[in-house]
Amino acid sequence: MRYYLFRKTVFDCKKATMLIIKKENGEASAWEQIQVFYHNIYCKVCRRFVQQSRLLNSIFGTLDQHEYENPSHTLPDQLRNSLQTLIDQQKK
Amino acid sequence: MEDSFLQPEKWIARYGDYLFSLAMIKTGNREVAQDLVQETFFSAVKGKDTFNGLSSEKTWLTSILNNKVIDYYRKKDVLKDAGNYLEATDESFHEAFFNPAPDVYGHWRKDTAPQAWADDADSAMKRSEFYKILQLCISRMPPKLIPVFVAKYIDEENSEKICKDFGLSSSNYWIMIHRAKVLMRSCLERNWFNS
Fold first, then answer.
1. Suppose A11 and one of A15, A26, A28, B45 were both cysteines; which one would form an S-S bond, judging by CB atoms 3.0 to 4.6 Å apart?
2. Angle at the Cα of B151 (from B145 to B157), degrees rounded to 5?
3. Is B16 helix (H, G, I), strand (E, B) or coil?
4. Which of B90, B93, B85 is nearest to B166 (CA)?
5. What φ, ψ does residue B112 adopt, rounded to 5°?
6. Contacts of A73 in chain B (CB under 8 A)
7. What are B94-103's pLDDT values in tens digits?
8. Cα–Cα distance, B10 to B28 (Å, whole number)
9. Contact between residue B131 and residue B44 where contact means Cβ atoms under 8 Å apart
């Protein structure tokens, strides 16, 4: 019975990870959530994928603030100066 | 300091490098990034009367840049024929991460399956080197996936808006997000977490 349920619901890890990603975005249907649930009971690697995927989401969202505090690139001086001049002229 | 009023004379000092860095990450091209930043400040100067003070100056300028980036991708037609592209590359994506038919079809390949990570995420975020690796992994993604990945995970835009901006069907959008996530996870694992 267990094996039957597994075969019935748990396709492959490629499909499972796709549904995991939909699920973490609140976009998986009830049936898709059940499929992920059953898949993950048997699949340690996809359980790990769930954890890592969540972690990455929170990390990705910090890139913007990181670039604000420690920009990885510097605006070329020539452009910096011409833009500053433009803005200063507008003010007058 | 984030004010609800604009101080254009301080924009370049405060946001010049930041916006340029975002543009670099999003386009991967120095010339293009310079153009987009220039256009952003042009539009901001012209449209400063439309600033309503509901968002911060930083958020306002970033949203102008983001619209320029979307326009750039649209003009370049980066996401044209997304469906055909995804179909044509499905097999190579599958083969890189999942077992081929007929044996245990679709299960993770042993050599590219997610491994337990040696380094934790908190310590990663405290280190500037990590963000360099993150940017490296973004730049190594297939060009068609980058705009979608960036909009979704870096800008944290909602899925509906991203589909609309890039003219993507919902199913193609999820395929792209899935591939981008699998590739990024793998790249960061190899180059940071377990390197």
1. A15
2. 140
3. helix
4. B85
5. -120, 5
6. 17, 20-21, 24, 33
7. 999 998 876 6
8. 26
9. no
Taking a C-beta distance cutoff of 8 angstroms, is the pair B61, B40 a contact? yes
Q: What is the ipTM for the molecules in this complex?
A: 0.90
How does pLDDT run across A11-50, given as a tens digit for each residue? 789 999 999 999 999 999 999 999 999 999 989 999 999 9
Q: Which of B131, B133, B149, B186 to mutate to test the interface with A (most CBs of A within 10 A)?
A: B131
DSSP for residue A76:
-
**Residue B58 burial (CB count, 10 A):** 18
Can you read off the two tokens belonging to residue A77? 């001086």
Mean local confidence (pLDDT), B136-163: 95
Torsion, Cα B191 B17 A55 B95, to 10 degrees, reads -50
Q: Does B118 touch chain A (CB under 8 A)?
A: no
Q: What's the gap in Å between the CA of B18 and the closest CA on chain A?
A: 5
DSSP string, B64-96: HHHHHHHHHHHHHTTTTTHHHHHHHHHHHHHHH
Angle at B73 between CA B68 and CA B77, to 5 degrees: 145
In three-state secondary structure terms, A69 is helix
Q: At residue B186, what is the residue type?
A: S
Residue A85 in tokens: 């001049």
Q: At what angle do helices B128-139 and B170-188 cross, to 10 degrees?
A: 130
Q: For residues B114 and A49, is the Cβ–Cβ distance under 8 A?
A: yes
